[in-house]
Design a protein that fits this description.
Elements (H helix, E strand, L loop, with lengths): L2 H8 L6 H8 L3 H14 L2 H12 L4 H20 L9 H20 L21 H15 L3 H12 L4 H8 L4 H19 L5 H4 L5
Helix pairs in contact: 4-5, 4-6, 5-6, 7-10, 8-10, 9-10
């Protein structure tokens, strides 16, 4: 779902950013009503999160949990005044949701060479730790230097969960053994490249 489609879905709730923030900084009843109408009555926010998560290897259940956690985090950030209104409310909310799914995906599949930029992430919200941001930069550094073929194979293996036999059939490799060899070679190349990043010794010092 592109930004224009997303914004059109949200137009009918009649909440401006200013009105929402004012309500969230009010009493408990006012805040609960605002959250309900803005994030739950309108299907737009959940639909966007579901599409984002499912397209990046998650399930509908994953998306609903990510959505719920993002609503809670957004509300808390408003209460703590961490959100200063320098971006649109929904842009900030979706950034939280994207980071939540990135962290959840990494915890569920720690072996996957997930790239920061593939999750559409920009500046991290305040709750994103800087060590994690460093890892994201290093993964990107390795990924950007891979060939298109290696990107396809690693995406098939780690993002789409394809078996070696399926990869061999899909990408014209002679056998599942050869597919594994290619995948391992691409992953090794990416790791070698990652180790050349100046942040690698500090960020991954526990692996040294």
């Amino acid at each position: 779902m592109d930004t224009n489609s997303r914004d059109q879905l949200l137009m009918k709730n009649n909440w401006t950013d200013a009105k929402l923030l004012e309500a969230l900084r009010g009493g408990a009843k006012t805040r609960d009503l605002a959250l309900e109408e803005f994030f739950y009555t309108d299907p737009g926010p959940l639909m966007w999160v579901v599409q984002f998560v499912v397209q990046r290897g998650g399930s509908r259940e994953d998306a609903e949990e990510v959505f719920q956690d993002a609503v809670i985090a957004f509300d808390q950030n408003v209460q703590r005044q961490s959100f200063e209104g320098r971006s649109k409310v929904m842009s900030y909310f979706y950034e939280i949701a994207k980071h939540n799914w990135f962290k959840r995906f990494r915890s569920l599949r720690p072996e996957a060479p997930v790239m920061y930029h593939e999750f559409g992430l920009s500046e991290p919200p305040p709750e994103i730790d800087q060590g994690e941001e460093g890892r994201m930069q290093i993964y990107d550094y390795g990924w950007e230097n891979l060939s298109a073929r290696c990107r396809q194979l690693l995406t098939a293996k780690y993002h789409e969960g394809m078996s070696m036999k399926e990869i061999a059939n899909e990408y014209g490799v002679s056998s599942d053994k050869m597919a594994k060899r290619y995948v391992d070679r691409c992953r090794d190349y990416m790791l070698k490249r990652m180790k050349k990043h100046p942040l690698y010794p500090r960020v991954f010092k526990s692996d040294q």
